[in-house]
Amino acid sequence: MATLLWIIAVILVIAGIYVLLARRDILWGIVLIVLGLLVGPGGVSIFHV
């Protein structure tokens, strides 16, 4: 389960960076990066029990 959360978190952060740099949409980029950090298995995780 932790591996799956890690993969999802990485995808969200990479998507956020892409949106920030390529599409110049600051709000959506920040939202995706923050979601990636919240989903990640290490540190802060919204799914951590």
* Global Rg: 11 Å
Overall pLDDT metric: 82
**Largest β-sheet summary:** none
Count of discrete alpha- or pi-helical segments spanning 4 or more residues: 2
**Would you identify the regions where 5 or more consecutive residues have pLDDT less than 50?**
none
Strand content: under 5%
What is the total tally of β strands? Answer: 0
- By helix and strand content, what is the structural category? mainly alpha
| Tertiary shape | elongated
Written as H for each helix and E for each strand, in order along the chain, the element string is HH
Distance between the termini: 12 Å
Q: Could you estimate the helical fraction of the residues in percent?
A: over 70%
Main attributes of the structure:
single chain, 0% strand, 2 helices, 49 residues, mainly alpha
Description:
- The structure is a single chain.
- The protein is mainly alpha-helical.
- Helix content is 73%, strand content 0%.
- The chain has helices at residues 2-23, 26-39.
- Helix 1 (2-23) packs antiparallel against helix 2 (26-39).
- It is elongated.
- It starts with a helix and ends in a 10-residue tail after the last helix.
Nutshell version of this structure?
73% of the residues lie in helices and 0% in strands. The protein is an all-alpha fold. The mean pLDDT is 82.
Describe the SSE topology.
Blueprint: H1 2-23, H2 26-39
